Amino acid sequence: MLRRLAALAAGVVLLVGAAPAGARDLPTIVQRGNDYLESVLQTPIPDRPVTMSLFAHDECGPGVFVPDGCAWSDHIEVLPWVVTQLLRGHGKERAEAAYVLEHETLHRLQEDGPREEGVTDALTWDLQLGYYRALGFHGRMIQAGYAEEVQQVRWTSARATGEGWRTRPARLFRRELWKATPQGRDALAKAAWGN
Ligand SMILES: [Zn+2]
After folding, report:
1. What is the whole-number distance in angstroms between the Cα of residue 80 and the centre of ligand 1?
2. Is the pLDDT at 13 greater than 50, yes or no?
């Protein structure tokens, strides 16, 4: 789940009017992103179609806010502005939309809650520039959606490797954390912090 409402207004405006011929199409965008993540992470990324949702029900997350996206085992739902920006957007709003798609794509659904969000969003942030390039554009770095949870993951990666969180060893540690089962994540965190 991820909440990024900054681009909402622009997205709604762009929804008006049919997509021009030769516009980007959503399945191709999703596939390019998945191919990139598979090649970097060396692990299969589930092929999940992306559908639009208004999240009218509290079916995704605790219901404390309306999320921009939600990952399920067989599909990914996003708010309309995300699709619109992916198909027809530019600049920062397009990058925000791609970030939402990347984040939901990276959810492994093995566990729920702050740690899953932190591990998922830390990796989303780490790989965002390559993901944008795979989708065919050069986006600027944008902030992580789950700042506190991501910082916890970065600290753990720094502690585990004895290097700064921006270093390659720490980045690789975060990939291992993402790939691990919940029990594996427990073990990696325990080894890092010694408790
Ligand atoms: Zn999430």
Report:
1. 17
2. no
